[in-house]
Design a protein that fits this description.
The protein has a five-stranded mixed β-sheet, with helices on both faces. It is built from four helices and five strands; from the N terminus they run βββαβαβαα. Helices cover about 45% and strands about 25% of the residues.
């Protein structure tokens, strides 16, 4: 099963999905928010299409780690998603995910118009990748020596 990553905002929801092994996150789409009912229907469709059994939602903490109104809204949305979709939902610290996404898109020389279209799904990708990296078993982590075979003369 896969995991969906969400960058939940007031106007849009960026969506990313993990690969089948849970190693990498890929941006999928940006949902333009119209109503809670429509948001949940779109997420349910994406969860079915990608066979996702878990959702990770970015938690917008302040730089000092405290929670403000956006974090409270994200927690409430997470509870609603869990009840509506019947999947496990986890919150993940999303501090600086949009900054990192913007920097990545600028470095890739993506046009301003295109950045505006994809910034939320790239932020969702950063959120999900951070969660995947933190939840990968230690023995599954890649080490540079894994490709080195010292048994040959």
């Amino acid at each position: 099963m896969r995991t969906l990553g969400l960058d939940f905002g007031t106007k849009t929801i960026g969506v990313a999905v993990s690969d089948g092994l849970g190693l990498t996150a890929q941006g999928v789409t940006t949902i333009r928010r119209t109503s809670l009912k429509a948001d949940l229907a779109a997420l349910a469709t994406l969860a079915r299409e990608h066979e996702a059994d878990r959702v990770v939602i970015g938690l917008p903490l302040n730089m000092d780690g405290s929670e403000g109104p956006r974090a409270e809204a994200s927690r409430k949305f997470a509870d609603t998603v869990a009840q509506s979709l019947g999947v496990q939902v986890e919150l993940w610290d999303e501090r600086l995910s949009t900054v990192a996404a913007t920097r990545t898109l600028l470095e890739a020389d993506v046009s301003r118009a295109r950045r505006k279209e994809v910034i939320d799904q790239v932020a969702a990708q950063f959120i999900l990748q951070g969660w995947l990296d933190a939840h990968r078993p230690a023995e599954a982590a890649y080490h540079a020596d894994d490709d080195y075979d010292d048994s040959e003369p």
